[in-house]
Amino acid sequence: MATFPVYACVLLEGYKEKASYSVLRSEMDNGVPKQRPRRSLPMVTREVRVRVADKTEKASFDTWVRTDLDGGTGWFDYTDPLDGATKQARIVSGDVTWSSPGVVWFADIKLETVG
Asked: What is the pTM of this model?
């Protein structure tokens, strides 16, 4: 199992979290619609911002995504910044969007976990 790089930092700035149980909803001819969950554990999507110190670390992060995560499809262990717990995650669609206000680089990423 791959591990999130130690040189990259998940920031709390812009952190968002959404849980989905993939609820099945059935409309009734009369009365209240019925609902039931498809899963016992939710798929949790987290929008995170990752910071790296310079272009060398950015290149290392890109290489980690490309090789260790097979283009972002693989699972990896990371430490959740809210509770400090180690969780398994993957990058949704393998998308990493970079921006840089100067030397430091920021990546906007969506992570998904189970539970």
From this structure: 0.85
